Amino acid sequence: MSDDSSVVRIFDTTLRDGEQSPGASLSVQEKIDIAHQLKRLGVDIIEAGFPVSSPAQFEAVERISEEVDGPTIAALARAVPLDIETAARAVKPAKKKRIHTFIATSPIHMERKLKKTPAEVLTLTGEAVRLAKSFCDDVEFSPEDAGRSEWPFLVEVLTAAIEAGATTLNIPDTVGYMMPEEYGRMIAHLIAHVPGSGKVIYSTHCHNDLGLAVANSIAGVMNGARQVECTINGLGERAGNAAMEEIVMALRTRQDVFRLRTNIVTTEITRTSRMVARCTGLPVQANKAIVGANAFAHESGIHQDGVLKARQTYEIMTPESVGLDSTRLVLGRHSGRHGFKARLEKLGYRLDKDALERAYERFLAIADRKKEVFDEDLAAIVGDEFRDVPEVYKLDYMHCISGSKILPSATVRVIVNGEVHQESEWGDGPVDAVFRAISKVSGFAITLDNYTIRAVTAGTDAIGEVTLRVRDNGHTVTGRGASTDIVEASARAYVDGLNKLAAWHARVAEQGADNVEDVV
Fold first, then answer.
1. The domain containing residue 276 runs over which residues?
2. Among 182, 173, 228, which Cα is nearest to 206's?
3. Which of 24, 134, 184, 197 has the most beta carbons within 10 angstroms of its beta carbon?
4. What is the pLDDT averaged over residues 255-282?
């Protein structure tokens, strides 16, 4: 990582803060896959998780530390010895490791949440950073809710953190409360008044409760911050975090203003965005800056005329600069394995021989139903076909009857651990009937908490991608499925959820626990 003061380091917290988005759910393998893509994207630091929070969180951080070489791997820890020691064990395999410890510093947090005095918080800050420093040289400290903290106290706390060995000071606007000018002034004030500021890197971490996360982050950068904490697609608690893609492309596009750069490979932005959206089950809104479906779309006649004459009339950056290929290869039923494999590799999927064959057979089945198969279709196919949980349940056959004056019914054949089970059910529509029939096979007392469907591409033959959340015994998982038939896509998503619930029950039985968090 360069020490050049013109470089803004990108600290990606998609796998930690981003996963805390309501409805987001990532398995250990999905976190590892995303971490590998973040490396290809060129992020400087990956905050891989909060190891003390659950066995699965610890496993994800440890495996990312083992398998992802290049970026610094960071683990979050409260200013508590157990947290810090657990984080240290999790990141130990990483060649470049960081412990990120934090404690709240605002009056409301200290009084209502921590129930500690400012003097106690000051003492805990020094103790936490010193303990973290005993495990690794790279230690980041965050005063939680800095945006509502008193500036003189912040100066005291940050001074203590530097004296204890912190190398990065992160200034979080935890509740998205601040205005850009105000946040910029705070960064400038701290750099000017905290002794030893020249020896550390200041970082931003802004939430989007007022829609100002990116603006606040940029204000911080303009006032001396040289690290930005952000997430892919702006995921995060409540209204989310600062969106990585917006910050990076703002710095790149307005070089005349910032004269700063990042190490991000911008042509990987779109691919990363789509991967995170698919894995979390949280789609990107169409008008989202940089990565939304409409970000480079022009419908107005005046705009179309201008773009045809000169793209710069209405495009301040090119689609190619963020990884959109304007000359995409379109695959169809006559495409061979070589072209299919080449396209998958260009999209970032490198499958072994058996996996490639399975994906190709699924591709041919989809291609028989639609004229053209686009990049988004391929991503849905691969994402739907390959899971990292054991396939206890496998959908073998499905038949539905529905109509305006017919009671909808469904028959399903599901293979359970190699045994064939067949059930039929009525329902309030074909999807409900299929779900009821599959539930009879499973024996689980399943509650459907959420169901969404989106068309992956345009056209009546588009692949439908279903994302749903199902709950059993108090544990909720996300299921996903894709098909040109939306009822089949729904059934695939439901079965995917069943397999994740089965994995969770197996883990509970193995550990002899009543409740296991974040298994899948």
1. 9-280
2. 173
3. 184
4. 93
